[in-house]
Model the fold of this input.
Amino acid sequence: MESNKNIKDTICAYAWDFPTVSMGRNGLKYCCRTELLHLSEEQIKHGSNIFNEHDDIMQLRRDLLNGVKNHNCRACWEIEGRGGYGPRTRIDKFIDIIIKKQIWSELSRDQIYDKLHKLTENEIDQLIKMQSIRSIDIQLGNTCDLKCIYCGHRESSSWAAERLRYGDIPQDRLAVELPNVDNTEFESIWWDWFENGYGNTTDRIKFLGGEPLFMEKFYTYINRIIDFYENSSTSDRPVSLSIFTNFNTKPFYYEKLLPVVLRIINSKRLKLQFNVSCESTGPRAEFIRFGLDWNIMVKNSENFIKFISDAQSNIPIHQRPISFIWQPALNALSISDLPNFVKFVIDLQDKTGYHLGIAQNQVTFPEWLNPGILSPDYSKYIDETISILNEKTPYMDHTLYVEKWDVYVDFLRSIKSLIEYEDKNYHSRKMFVANVDTLCNRRNLNFHNTFPEMVDFYNICNS
Done:
């Protein structure tokens, strides 16, 4: 009997239940923070089984079961190594899968916990092959109208154009990383995998960017998925669709979105989490998310909340299928404005009367934007934000479909731990200055005027 005593330090259910498919790059990964695995023509020819049986994913699972920190999960190891709480799931979530799949149905939960620490090779092989898809992320391409500071050319066509213009990346390398592929066969095997299998077992489907609302393919995909669930009789359990958008959306695409939302409201099985990515306010938001018009994003949010409020007016509040979630990616530039951003969310909620959520997310890479590079005095902004949320949380105990605001407070405490961690990455601080200066020159921005409270930190990094 082999000892797997370190499994609690490595195991993560995402390696089993959280695939991401990249339609624009013929790629696959498990968990949004791991590296993309490009599928060759030969692998694609094997058909839809590749989504369950890719060698690299099998090895990732084997390592996690053996208590080995696989390099693909380094985002979590980095966060946890600095005293933070990584986004990976823990052993309890993995035990939930085992119980759900009735792998060892004769064992109690405590007995399963003990068994996971003493797995045989045969039992490891059994668990590696276990399939329990809970959530599917779909990346339709890198088409995007913004150049968010923590993003890059793989996720934003605007970033790609800028990097080409300034010679940061040669055209031949870009062609390799973002191939102009005919992915008809890849999409075909994915639809086969989804419509003839895992679409009937998954709980959530997420549309990621680029910017989904800016892509014609998004509307084709989401309507086909809605058709699938409206015509499927295999289960009556609810399925949640999620859209992640910068909501810098022009009128044509905004109007194109509304009939999709109405289809979801009128469906019997579907819910929608509408996730707006933003973590700062006004000029700071426009600096971080270059190309964003803050006023357009706010106006779209207000109009959309009114639209979904009116469309669901006859539905009891606890049964409404549409939730509106703010998705801040906390980064080194956003922390000092976080109290203002949270106040903005609360004010918007009070103004519209619609209950809003805040999701947990932080920037790990690039390292120079990781909140952990900040000096310890920046923890005061976390304390101020927590104080604001604690005042509001008692009124938010009925928030649906996402973590409640008090859970977000726990997440902020982990960010505070990262900021107060004494062992700083001084190379990343140097890169902070170098990259901020470069982007200011290229984009005609003024860091010192936009973030006056960060000038001292900038000078520390530049010393």
Remarks:
- The domain at 135-462 is CATH 3.20.20 (TIM Barrel).
- Confidence is low (pLDDT under 50) at residues 394-403.
- Residues 44 and 186 are 6 Å apart (CA to CA).
